[in-house]
Amino acid sequence: MKQVISKALAPLTLLEWGAIMVYFYFSGRIVAFLHPTFRPMVLAVGILMILSALVLVVWREDSCCSDHSDCGHSHSSFDEPHAHREALTFGGFCSFLVLLLPIALATQISTDTFGVNLLKNRGALENAQSLPGASARLASLQKKEARSSKAPVAPTPTPQPVYVGVDSEFALPTQNGEPAQNSDSTTGYQNPALIPNKDGAIKVEAIDLIFVAGDASARHDFDGKLVEMIGQYSAPAKGTKGSSFKLVRMFMVCCAADVQPVMLGVRTEQPMNGFAPMDWVKVVGKVQFGSIGDKPAPCIVHAKITHIPAPDEPYVY
What we know:
Structural class: alpha/beta
C-alpha cells in the first residue's frame, strides 16, 4: 500500500498543479492575477503538466527491469529490495504535502479583487514621475519638443477644425506606446483614440491623464476638455470639504504582485452618499491641472458620477 501511494504522489502533484492552472484560465480568474501577455503560457504549462502526470502513471516502471538478465547488475540476497527503496517515508510524504496543500488552499481563500487595504499598504501614484517608465518617456518627448522648436518655421497652412491637437509623436500609456497616427483633413483629429464619443467626451484612463500632466504641451491639449473614464471610488479623508473623492485604477506591469494603485482627484456637485469604497463608477467631467506638492497632477471637475458593473479587465497595463 505504501508503495502504491509513493508512486502516486509525483503524478498527483503534477496533475493538481496542471488542473489548477487550466481551471484558472478557463474560469476567468486568471484575469485578476496576470497580465494578458502571459495568460496563454499558463494554459500551455497546465496542459503539459497534466500530460506529464498521465505519462508517469502509464509508463512508470514497477521495477528497474522486467528481466533480471537485462538489468546490468547482480541481484544478490544482500541487495536492498526495490520495494524498500521505493517505500514511502514520513519525510517524503511531508515534502509532497508542501507542494499539494498550499496551492489547493490558495485557490479557495484567495480573493480576485483588491480592496482599501491595498491603498493603505502600497499608497497610490498621483503624478507622472512616479509611473513605471514614465520618466524616460517624458524626457524623450521633451527632447523632441526642443528639437522641433529650433527647426525653421514653415508657412502656416489653412487652419482646420482641430479639437484635440495632440502631437503625432505623442502616445498615451494605454495605447501601448504606439505613436498617434496623422488624421485626414476632414476630421482635423491627429489621434483617433482621442475622438470624442457621441456625448462629446474623450474616453481616457486615469493613468493617461497622470502621464499627460507631466508634459506641458499635452496638458495644453487636454486642459478643459470633457473626458470619460472608469475607476473605483475611494472616499475622501475625513474633514475634506465639498463633494470630492479619489478615482482609483489598478496598474499592472506583470502580475498581481506588482499591482500599484493610480489615483486622481474628482470634484462634483452631486451627493456621494450612495457610493461605497471601491465601488466601480463612471466619471464624466472636465480636465483641470493643478499640483500635488511640487508635481503637476490632473483633476476632474464638474463631474457626473454613475455606478457601473466591474469591467472584464479590472487593471490598466
